[in-house]
Each structure stands twice: as structure tokens, then as C-alpha cells.
Amino acid sequence: MNRSEEDILNAWNLEEAYKYIVHDVFLIIYFIVGVFGNVVVLIVYQVKLKKESDSRYFIPILALVDLLATILRVPFELWRTILPVNFRDINACRYLWFVVNIFTFASIYFLGIITLQRYLKVCRPFGSQLTLRWRRASLVFIFILATGTGAPFVIWDEILPIPNPALNVTGYICGADVFEVNENSDYILGFIFFISFVITSVMLELIILNSLIARKIYTIIRNTNARRNSTKPARSNVSKEISGSTFYVTQDGTSITEANSTDFSLTNNEQEIRKEKVMVPLSNYSQPIKSTSENQEPASSRKFSYMFMVISLAFILSYLPQIFLLFSLINDRYFWIKISQTETIVFKFIDHMTTVNNIVNPYVYGFFDQKFRASAKTLC
């Protein structure tokens, strides 16, 4: 390429790059928010919540995966938007994008395993659970699966030429060539369908399992309210029956009840026998107030389930538009360079909504998880 062609290409690239200025600002915000949130999660779980229950086992691991995905993906995406038609680094196109996709798919698979764990705890509490051994095995399996899912990017991603007849110059982008009919085109299309199938399958798993969890929680709340309402009349009757008696509370938590009523038809000796002291447990007459931890535990467990429902919903909302956009672009290599600046902002925002999946989780934790929120405040 001679000097004049290089100048023309740079001018064309600069013109296209202007379309992405707003989008680049969003990427920088995503980067700051994502890195800050996930780093806070890692610090809190390393310093404050290191010995927490198995329900939180995957949270710091997911935060680390999301952090690495954010650190690697956002700069790479900025690189591509700064050089929208002049990207020529084949190594970054293949290998860096491959690593980015490993952590991206690992994050998706972790949502699936976390939801499965919540389902077993809530809906099958007396059945098989994810023991420490199975949780560790799932980590290995998830990263193997994520690596296998992202491996084809190394094979098929390449620097694709984008001819511009009007300027008599050729630009370059990073992508898989699904437009040229050759021996690999069917495999590439099959791979794109496979990726879409994987994402859709995880979405369906999240929808089904979270629906079952929500139904179980609703049933528990309904039954608890029904039992609470049914015990109120019984407690009221007991209170009336013992209202004429005097209580003496002993140190062992029981009460001594002395009947005040006297049957005058009895002799004095019989009255003395009738007027006896009876050891009665207080729990027979009134339901003792449960400790704070016992009262809060069911609500805390429900909030934990709600938290992962919201995270699952965020994943679905961030990836669903991406699937539709992927199939819209599959037959048009020139899509990004022929749309207007406004359209570029809209479609790029949709294209990179998947980044939200890697940055939103810490803020969902902060909203629903009181223990995490309190621990995070102590870091300040």
C-alpha cells in the first residue's frame, strides 16, 4: 500500500471512528464500574466473608471471572472502535479475543451452576447437594467447557478485507468470514448457531429453575402465613384459661402456677391439696419469641434467591438482543460501515450490552445481600 492509499485509509478510518465516540464513552464507564465493583467483591470475600457458607462459594470466583473479562474485553473493544476499518493485528484478533471469550462463556456457565445450586437448596433440601468435591469439579468442568466453546475463534477469526470502491482503498476488520462460500463457511455458520444454542440453553435453564425456586418460595410463604394465622385463636384461648392463675418464673425457664380459685364444698384439708403448685413450661402457654437470627434466616435465604434471580434476568436481558443482532448481521459484512452515526450508537450499544453481564453483579449483591453490604461499608 503506497503513501496515498495509506492516507486515504487513515482518513476513512477516522471518519468511521467518529461514529463510535459516544460508544467509547460508555465502554470507559463500563470499565470503571465493572473493575471497581468486582474488586470490592473480591476484597470483601477475602477479608470479611472468607469462611462463609457454601451458598457463597461461587460468588468470589464469578467476580474474578467477570473482572478478567472486563479488563480484557473493554480495551480490546476500544481498540476495534478506534480502528474500525484499519484493524490488522491478527494475533489480537485471534488469541486475545479467544481469551476474552473464555472468561465470557465461563461467566455464563457459572450462572447456570449457581442457579442449579440454589434450586437444590431451596427445592430439594433433603436430596443430593453440591458438596465441596462437586463444586471443585464443576470449576474444572466450566473452564474446560468455556475453553472448548471459545476455541473455534482461534481457527476462524481473521483479518477480513473491506473494499471501498468509492475511495479505491481496502480496509480491514477482525471477524470470521461467513460471507465467502468455501469449505469452511458451513462450519462457521454451524459454530455461530452452536454459540446461539449454548446461550439460549443457559437462558432456558435459568428461566425454568428460577421459576421452580420462585414457586417453592411462594408456597413456603403461603404455608407460613397460614400456620401463623391458625395459631392466633389457640393462643388467645390459652390466655383466657390461665388468666386466673398466678405465675412464678423459676431460673430454669419454667413457671410455677398456683390456682387462685377455691371449691368451698371441699374440706379444709382437701382445699389445701387442691391448692397446689404445678410446674408448667412457659412454652405451653405462649409461643416464645425467636431469636433475631432465627427470624431473619428465612428472609435472608429468600433474598439470596431473589438476588440470583435478578442476576439471571440481567444476563437474559443483556444477551437476548445480541442473539437477534448476530443473525441480523450474519449476511452483511459491510453493516457497520454503511449505517449512520445514530444507528451506529444504537446498534453498538445493543452489541455490547453483554458487557453489562460482567459488571452488574456486585451492585446486585450490594442491594440484596445485607451481610455483603455491611462488610463492604467497613472497608471505607
TrEMBL record:
GO terms for molecular function: G protein-coupled receptor activity. Gene3D superfamilies: Rhodopsin 7-helix transmembrane proteins. InterPro entries: GPCR_Rhodpsn, GPCR_Rhodpsn_7TM. The chain crosses the membrane at residues 20-45, 57-76, 96-116, 137-156, 187-213, 306-330. Keywords: G-protein coupled receptor, Membrane, Receptor, Transducer, Transmembrane, Transmembrane helix. One of its GO terms (cellular component) is membrane. Pfam families: 7tm_1. Its main location: membrane. Residues 37-365 form the G-protein coupled receptors family 1 profile domain. The keyword Transmembrane applies. The keyword Signal does not apply. PANTHER family: G-PROTEIN COUPLED RECEPTOR, PYROKININ-1 RECEPTOR. This is GPR101. It comes from Mytilus edulis (Blue mussel).
